[in-house]
Amino acid sequence: MQSRRTHQASKQRRRGFTLIELLVVISIIATLMSLILPAIQNAREAGRRTQCLNNIRNVTVAALNFASSNKSRLPALAYYVDNPATTTADNMGQRSWVVELLPYMDQQGTYDRWNKTVAWNDNST
Fold first, then answer.
1. The pTM is what?
2. Is residue 7 part of a domain?
3. Consecutive H or E run containing 94
4. Does residue 124 fall inside a structural domain?
5. What is the CA radius of gyration of the chain?
6. What value does the mean pLDDT take over residues 53-63?
7. From residue 111, how far is each of 36, 37, 66, 84 by CA, in Å?
8. Closest Cα to residue 79, out of 65, 104, 67, 96?
């Protein structure tokens, strides 16, 4: 009879995982994660690189479209003078060549909101 009770008691104790089994599973998961994470980071970096190249391509296409619309001239820094008698270098309106490309990059709304009469370094607005 004693052996039956011992046998039944040992069956009842075998229902859970041992500490060693849990540690093995955790180490396997950690090893798999260490292999997968660099691959995920490389994929993200490749995506960022592709997005950057796409942005550069869009700016280049916009510059070429600008040139084809403006006698083969690329955009340059633009100065705007309302009244030549009172305009000095400090109050002359300026905008970058990037602003000139905005309509060619489907950003007409941003281009229209640009205030051409205010100097680039005017802090009053």
1. 0.59
2. yes
3. strand 93-95
4. no
5. 34
6. 96
7. 45, 42, 14, 24
8. 96
